[in-house]
Structure formats: C-alpha cells, structure tokens
From TrEMBL:
SMART domains: HDc (SM00471)
Domain HD-GYP residues, every copy: 141-336
Protein name: HD-GYP domain-containing protein
PANTHER family reported for this sequence: CYCLIC DI-GMP PHOSPHODIESTERASE PA4108, CYCLIC DI-GMP PHOSPHODIESTERASE PA4108-RELATED
Pfam families found in the cross-reference section: DUF3391, HD_5
Organism, as annotated: Sphingomonas liriopis
Stored PROSITE patterns: HD_GYP
GO MF term set: phosphoric diester hydrolase activity
Amino acid sequence: MIIRIAVGEARVGMYIDSMECAWIDNPFWRRSFAIKTDAELAKLVASPIAHVSIDTTKGRGVTVIPTAERRRAIDDSGSSGAADAPRAVERRRRRSGPQAGDLTRALDRSKEHVMALFREARLGKAIELGAVTPVVDDISVALQRDPAAFIKVTRLKLNNEYTYLHSIAVCALMVNLAMHLGLPEDEVREIGAAGLLHDIGKVATPLDILDKAGTLGDEEWLVMRRHPRDGHAMLREHADTSQIALDVCLHHHERLDGSGYPEGLKGDAISLHARIAAICDVYDAVTSIRPYKRPWSPHEALARMLEWEGHFDPVLLDAFIANLGIQPLGALVRLNSNRLGIVLDGGEDPAFPLVRTFFDVPDASLRPIEDVDTSRDPILRSERGDYWFPDRWPDILASVQAGETPMPLDPVPIAAAGGR
Ligand SMILES: [Fe+2]
C-alpha cells in the first residue's frame, strides 16, 4: 500500500516510494529507498521536503494512518490487504492520471524558455546560460513525479516547435538515465543542461532545411551536419559553459564504430556523456510524432536501436531500456500469469503493450498463441529466448511473430523445468 505521510511521521524501517520535492532538494539523490539508519532519517527530516509517500509492502508502515489517506489507499487497492499485480497496475494509472495537467504546464513553461533561448541565439545575441538551470530543474521536478508520463507528453511535436521540444525531451531522457546510473548531483544537472543545449547549433541552420518535411538532399545534409561544430563554437564563447555541454554539443552524433560525425571518433574516444546523448537523441527523434512521417513506437524504436551494431554503447543502451521500463518489440517476457510471450506493438500506453503468449511456465509446455493485454496481465520481467529454448529460439520466435503456434518440443526444453 502506498501512503502519503508528513516527513515528521517517517521512521527507520520505512521504504520511501517517492518524495515531493525537486530533485535538487532531494538529499539522497534517489527516488526510492529504505530508511535504514537514524542518520538517514535525520537527513530526511532536516531537508526542505514536507511530504513523502511510503510503500508498506516493502517496509514498515505508520502507527496510525491518517483517515483520508487510509480511505484513499483502500479505495485504490479495492481492499486494505495486499494488492495483486493487476491492481497495482491500476493504482499506478490512477495515481498518474491527475498529473497530466501539471505535466503539460511544466512542458509549456520549459518550451517558452527554450524558445526564447534559441530565438536570442538565432539573432546573434549572447546565450543566457543562467536561464538554462531553472529549466533543467523544472523538467527534473516533472520527471521526479512520473518520468514515463513526462517523456510521453514530449513525443508530439509540431513542425515549428520540433527543435525546442526535442531539446526538452533529450534533456529529460538524459537526466533520467544519468540518475539511473547513479551519477553525482552536479554532474546530472550539467548533463541536463547539455541535453537542452545539444542542438543549439541548429540556430545557424537555414529554416528551409531545418523545417523541411521531406528527405534532405546531399547538399542539405552537409549543411545540417554543421550544427555540432556551430553549436560548439557558440558555447565556447561563454567562459561559464561546462565541459560536459561543450562535449555533448560537439559529439552527440558520433558513433562507437567511427561512422558518426563531425570527427568520426571511435570507441573510448567518445565520452560517457556523449554516448548518453547519442542514445537519448536518436530515441526521441525516431519516436517523435511528426505531421509528415509515421513515428516508430517506443517498442519498435528500441528493437531497431538494439540491431544497429556499432552505433550505440550496448551497456548504456541496456541501461536506457531498463530505465524506461519499455520492452523492445519482439522481446521475450514473462507475464504475471506465468506465461511466456513476445512483445507486440499496440495499445496507447507503452508500459502495457500487447504480448503474444505461447508457453506455460508451470507446465513447461507450448500453448496455442494468445494476444494478451498487459494492463490486465502485467509483465513481470524480461526473459532470454536462447536460455529457454537453446536451439529452437529463432524458429519459435519466427512462428510466434507470424501468428502461428510453434510445434511441440521434443523433448521438453531443459531450461523450462527450473526457471531462473
Ligand atoms: Fe543534433
């Protein structure tokens, strides 16, 4: 059960599910954690945070639950006992619902600031670097509440606002991944600023190329590819630009195999920050909903990015996928009902894709395929096809994707008996 309490009610042994504060005010630099010591409790009480939410399934609860909170918790879970997984999913949905207006307002505010930043830069005026940090903070507050929802509202981009919303989305994705990687607070903030500024060089790109709806010609691509160097030159004029922002601006289009631009850097020559930026930049670009092209769904985008060998850092890409909580198209997953299936597209919420089930774990047997709505039968975890079906996985995957029930196995796969 998730219960909102005043910080004064917090006790050692409680599990903090979320804190109502900007990430810069978060003294622990984590969203969720158990309070294990008196020192940690004292740190929380001394912080500017007024309220937190605790998860009583993972730690101790409060002695007396405030009536209003108890009523809400019972209302959410359908009973005061432990909720099963589908109920937990429904609870998450209800919790995130009322925040849609807040998210839109945060996005609009950020967009206004970023548009002003780019407008001034386009007019040749000095870039107001001081204006960047509050925008990063604003985005981070929205992220703290519900990262998936914020990233979702940044997907729709009208033509004339694409660059601004893309900058905000890349900032959000980079902050989210950097926090997931456990990088220090100052570094995360600089990474967020770098995300906002990574495409600032596009203010020097002619608008007819920047806003062109169709495919760019060779000459136009050459012009477009100048923006990392242009942006780097603009930022270098400011003594207070961080090294991270300079590096990300210049190197966010580099690829591990050396096929990127502008410098064709290879492997370790590309910094961690530029590698993070490359993943977040491409993910947002290909999933953006544009008036003139079909966007890739988040599942499809992740599946394709995994296939582009030599493009991204594979370890960071895995961390990015795990942090998004979105399964790539074709990924093997286990559902709450203990069935294995592969992820299909479909459904409005990328956290709850359709899954085509074909294998029953307790019986260790193939079953007729069935497309399952994962908002009703949630995904428990990802699984490895080559572990469950050592030699037959490519054939089984192809059958299931084609909508055919795979032929029975002979004998039953060894791995299926024990699980992992
Ligand atoms: Fe770029």
